[in-house]
Amino acid sequence: MPEATALDIPADIAIRLSRTMMLIRQFEEKIVDVYGVQDMKTPVHLCIGQEAIAAGVCENLRTDDYILTTHRGHGHCLAKGASPRELYAEFYGRRQGCARGKGGSMHPVAPECGVLGASAIVGGSLPHAVGAALAIKMQGGDRVAVAFFGDGATDEGVFHESLNFAALKTLPVIFVCENNFYAVSSPILARRCNDNIVLHAQPYDMPNEQVDSMDVLKVYHAAHRAVARARAGEGPTLLECRTYRWKGHVGPEADHEKGCRPKEELEDWMQRCPVEYLNQLLLAEGIITEEALAESTREIERELDDALEFARQCPFPDPREVLENVYYTGA
Amino acid sequence: MPEATALDIPADIAIRLSRTMMLIRQFEEKIVDVYGVQDMKTPVHLCIGQEAIAAGVCENLRTDDYILTTHRGHGHCLAKGASPRELYAEFYGRRQGCARGKGGSMHPVAPECGVLGASAIVGGSLPHAVGAALAIKMQGGDRVAVAFFGDGATDEGVFHESLNFAALKTLPVIFVCENNFYAVSSPILARRCNDNIVLHAQPYDMPNEQVDSMDVLKVYHAAHRAVARARAGEGPTLLECRTYRWKGHVGPEADHEKGCRPKEELEDWMQRCPVEYLNQLLLAEGIITEEALAESTREIERELDDALEFARQCPFPDPREVLENVYYTGA
Amino acid sequence: MPWTKVYLNVEEMADTLQKEGLRGISYHEAILEAQAQAMESDDRVFIMGEGVDDPGGIFGTTLGLAERFGKDRVMDIPVAENAMTGIAIGAATVGMKPVFVHMRNDFLPMCMDQLVNHAAKLCYMTGGRLHVPLVVRAIIGRGWGSAAQHAQAFHALFMHIPGLKVVMPSTPYDAKGLFLAALDDGNPVMFIEHRWTFNAVGYVPEEMYRVPLGEGIIRREGEDVTIVALSQQVYEAMKAAAILEADGISVEVVDPRTLKPLDEELILSSVSKTRRLVIADVAHRTGSVGAEIVCRIAETSADILVAPIRRVCFPDTPIPASPVLEEAFYPGADDIVEAVREIVKGS
Amino acid sequence: MPWTKVYLNVEEMADTLQKEGLRGISYHEAILEAQAQAMESDDRVFIMGEGVDDPGGIFGTTLGLAERFGKDRVMDIPVAENAMTGIAIGAATVGMKPVFVHMRNDFLPMCMDQLVNHAAKLCYMTGGRLHVPLVVRAIIGRGWGSAAQHAQAFHALFMHIPGLKVVMPSTPYDAKGLFLAALDDGNPVMFIEHRWTFNAVGYVPEEMYRVPLGEGIIRREGEDVTIVALSQQVYEAMKAAAILEADGISVEVVDPRTLKPLDEELILSSVSKTRRLVIADVAHRTGSVGAEIVCRIAETSADILVAPIRRVCFPDTPIPASPVLEEAFYPGADDIVEAVREIVKGS
Ligand SMILES: Cc1ncc(C[n+]2csc(CCOP(=O)(O)OP(=O)(O)O)c2C)c(N)n1
Ligand SMILES: Cc1ncc(C[n+]2csc(CCOP(=O)(O)OP(=O)(O)O)c2C)c(N)n1
Ligand SMILES: [Mg+2]
Ligand SMILES: [Mg+2]
Question: Of D203, D234, D264, which residue sits at a domain end?
């Protein structure tokens, strides 16, 4: 664990960041716990290790701002305010799931708090965020849209096309690349000749930052600057958030167990756990106590147990519902 | 006409460059002459004004090197050695056309001299050049592949994907962007926030040059460097060749006649005719005489008249040939 | 009824409509008017596409709109079909109503991912929490030696994709009415226009009206054979019907107008009467819309048809450039006539 | 004959093959072996795809190949399907023979432009001067709550595109033989594998052999009804046939094996005998391959069928995630049985 730097944000924000990260971590770990039973029949892409990005970015967002996410989207949804109950219910394929059981783990959605969905096609939801930002610009106001995506998505042409249009029209969108250095088991340097995603902003004269995302404060500040620019009508930003996923691409096992990467690599990164890092800092600065932290953990645990219980007790959809929602049929 | 700088290449090369540019110019002007009769039933995208790029790049290529081109491809094919007879015959839809009348003006092909075809889909042939370069690398030798494409193609994701892979695998490919500042009638700044295409090479650590392509010597030298690197196994280069097309996007009229752009803009660029520019330089340096130039013009004229005559006398394909060549059926 | 009538030429229209005091305009004017009225009456509507603000105005269908509504609402775009479609989708999910114009249908494979994997599925995979009101105008039709990449038609592909709707208006009246209905629909609608119909003329009311998606129409009644004709082939079918009438063959011409949803009932009732079917399409044969229509009939009963069916469509070859090959490639009224004669004689 | 036999389980195979001293291996092993032998015997062959060198080895179908042939010939690639397909095409035009592997067919819309506008057309639009020997392996099939974007099948789309060929092997024997034939073909071949067939077992000779494209096969002979079954549905059809036999209904199961070119003759001769047709497919209903098959029959004669046809396929909805909805969505042997009973009873 590296030396904790001084806390440079108000305590209430710091505490919220801590809580959001813990919520995400515990939400995902609960999936790890229950997944073996095989009644959560949906491919889960866990974001353990990457929590600081969702927390640090979304702390800067309002309910009326939009986010778009990917196959690895649980954390983003939670940080933006989506209901754990509806998320778990969705993963269990239940009717009260946020997508009525139609979407599963890869397609969470929560329009009530600005979560405009997720694509399981790499890069697929990136232009949607740009489109939401275009709509914002046409409709007026100072809302912003955020696209979360992985380093894999930056291989796709649609990433570049999206950046170009956002820059051209000075749209209020923040591109948040979670660079965890892998796409499935393909290391980033097998897919591109360097690992500096942030360079892609330069041809578009787009502000950009490469952010060590084991430190949520750094993410928070970078996102803060980006969101401020976007709200002020100054256009898009590309944030490259360098991070690491602890679990395998899909499912609850770790990648080294399948031989996809060295165990030491994971262990090194785990030394820099983003949740631990902030919590140690808060403890060191006397902003929270060990007891408060433990209580927080328990409280989240209770909330998530309740959510899981809720999800499992929800009814399944009626089989006939398979035919519904193919088309919108009016409000 | 700007001051002619000193000629910095051997005279024989300079004379070939002049001849190639004149061939392209006269080839295109002959189409302008005959197009009104409406018996050349194919949409022609003329490259008048842009000749220096085809000439300057292809002067560095061997017959066993490859080029890939676009809807605006006549000049590239001629510079690489394609037969004017077969090109005209193709445009007239005849059986002796280079594509047996199947392709028309937008799909010239001449495998015997390394012309691997053209795509009328913007950006479509770019990855084919990268694929040819990949094959070269696998097969061995010091051949290179060149992709010609317009500024419009750089809007497409496939451009970025192609650059990335070429850089990743250090492939012997040269990306030659003919930046004529328009895609159909859409000015470049309506499509991107700056007009420096060359910036797109930077995220891939790819050598790149922005080249004033009214001066064929500059193109020649830039291409020379790029081809040398590629042959030496040092990988790809992006050349942004700044140029201007004198004619409309398609057909023999100029764009200002349709109200697509100001007449003055064209006139300014016409002041810097690349063919004139080199010829003036050659005259000034005493490398050619007015008479030799005039004779050259007449010789090309005779060759092209012959080609046109040939094309017009070729038989049309048999209507049943419509069903042929859908599939390859063996050598 | 003037709004169902197919006029084969301007003179015929002038005669009929002027007598009745009805306004006749062309197909491209009808689309232009529909878009202008939509934008006038609804702030959420905007148009995007390569060259929509260009002096040619997409065959006249967007002429003057940029001047009238501004370039923010009539937006030229980068040549980047996939992201731009995604951008339209994103805007549509948060309250806008984009109209995306493709000068040529051939560019749609570039944005197939956003159309097939996203636009078509967002409503379903979010359990109806999002939807995508998006009209994609895609222009098809024979050019001038345009060759393999510039004259295709993909309506059969889109028909296979749940979540999309597919519309193919043949007349000016339907072009306007179906466009406005598509824009209201709240779903992604592939709106397919054939460039050879752009100068077709017909009665088009000035006010805004809708032609409901999923309702076909009988263009001409007949007894002996049904021709289901798509888009521009409606005109060819009408010509063929006139020729065949002289032979004493009575032809019913059905124009489905929308392919997805398909007016199966109308087709079935026509075919149940005539018991013979020719499909006239503007796309390749194998896997064409005609196959689906025939299959729907065959799913209903084996007793409906008394003669083999015929498809008049493109052969299964890419599109050639040479005028001689184009001539061999493209079917027309004469091919329809021949197909009808074959199955009427044969039975 | 062991090479036409469909084994419903490992035990059945073990019994039969071991007795005859024939080698039985699984579908994924057959594909692996075919690729290894192709690479061994031909320097021009190489494999590219996201994760082809990954420990999972694309359901085992590329396992060990990177170690054996090197990562230059078994090439992991960036997540950039469109350019990578174009790169395969470019390499193919100058003498290489790429095999492009897509872990999921759903990613093909990303490269639709290169497949539809380029691979399919290059031979034609260059008058045969170039051609594209390219095999695109695309894996389809039900996952585990994979939802709308991860379990689709697009064979019907590709069937509509002239210049492409479409292959859908159901057995290990055909997987190997059709793969090697596809690789020899010199044209772009969509090679579609269903993940539920990967563990199917059967006789597969060790030597290299080819199963010609365009030849279907009768998997089971019968008199009363023809089931044309695609890919994994061949297994369901065989199960259904066994069940129906008990009812005294004699079922003929036809496996077309390739869709483009389609063995129309084989299907026609079977249907001419049984005069009843059910099509079992692994894709959405509207615009499906079944429609084309029915249409080909209807083009031949109106007298062949004596009962309505049935399509057993996906409904026209995107694919849902919930297990309950998946269960309702996916058809199986029971649905085939029901469909057959309907049209046998009804006539
Ligand atoms: C277009 C497309 N190609 C391939 C895939 C298969 N795939 C699923 S996730 C993934 C890797 C994504 O990597 P990245 O974007 O870095 O996100 P991460 O999983 O690392 O968070 C791939 C290749 C896909 N879903 N979509
Ligand atoms: C994918 C695609 N989108 C749109 C078009 C229509 N189109 C034809 S040429 C062209 C502009 C190309 O501009 P550029 O690449 O700069 O080449 P230039 O014509 O200027 O030489 C466009 C948009 C197309 N052919 N393909
Ligand atoms: Mg990643
Ligand atoms: Mg240009």
Answer: D203
